[in-house]
Amino acid sequence: MRVLHVFKTYLPDTTGGIEQVIFQLCQGGYPLGIQGEVLTLSPQPEPALVKVADHPVYRAKQDLCIASTGLSRQIFSLFKARIAEADLVHFHFPWPLMDLLHFCTQQRRPTVLSYHSDIVRQRLLLSLYRPLMQRFLGSVDRIVVASPNYQQSSQTLQPYRHKTEVIPFGLDPLAYPSANPERMAFWRQQLGERFFLFVGVLRYYKGLHTALEAMQNAPYPLVIVGSGPQEQALKTMAQRLGLSNVIFLGKLDDQDKICLLQLCYAFVFPSHLRSEAFGISLLEASMYGKPMISCEIGTGTSFVNQHGETGLVIPPEDPQALRAAMQQLWGQPERAAQLGQGAARRFEELFTAQRMCSEMARVYRELLESKTTQHP
Questions:
Q1: pTM for the full model?
Q2: Counting C-beta atoms within 10 Å of the first and last residue's C-beta, which end of the chain has fewer, N or C?
Q3: pLDDT, tens digit (0-9, with 9 covering 90-100), for 34-71
């Protein structure tokens, strides 16, 4: 079976939660008889075909980007060529250009849509896009969402509940590098072994402004790994607040990130808006058995991090609540260790890449069998 994944950005140009999910689906599909490939945009698509691990990535030239929506003329012909070789198309929502690809090429392959997030910030543009979006969501054969929390809380998904199912995202620990002993020793010397950690792209919805407020006069350090649009504003805020206990490390490679995930005391993830639909970084923290602190925003973050079982869940944009949660974990090492053990258990039960890929393969086969029955 050949599956074409379609999304606006992908490795090696960008790294993020959706890219990680697509990567795991492509790599994890091979043992199940599924050959995955990716169609995406790139500002510099030379070469146009690259290989990421074992799967091919076809890159069209991005001509323009408006409101986080990449636009391309070339992708229409490229989509048509790739769809001719595919048995099934797996769209990754949201990306409005993807809707146009689907309708303008009049493709007839079975379609799966992973609904990663509501459109939260671009409300004016959403009002213009909504008719096309609703037509697109109504036309795909199956919609997959990563948590029951998001399925229940998304108003956009309610009309399509009959064809929506929950398949949690998953990670493969073997896809991550082993921690290098020399790098572990380096970071242990630099940071010690008792620090809170955040990992992610520094975007507007990550809630790090709340974390900085919570860190005023705190007796413990917070290490922030990642870069992004909010980086300079956050550094300026930290300087204004006199936060010598907050360490910005910028973007690190996977080897260093793994070292910090293993060394950290606990993981802080203060995202406060629904744009944070799941939180792959939370999965990484639970994979390494770390207690977590996250916010209740009605999305998959509270599906990954269960209050009192794997960590603490607090109200969003509440510096006092975040500070209290950090103090609670810091002052109760045994409790923190128990929560970390709970996180590791929940990861093994629900969030492995093997489980995600097996469930997605079932959906693919059901659709292909259904189409064959309808059109023998």
A1: 0.91
A2: C
A3: 999 999 999 999 999 999 999 999 999 999 998 788 99
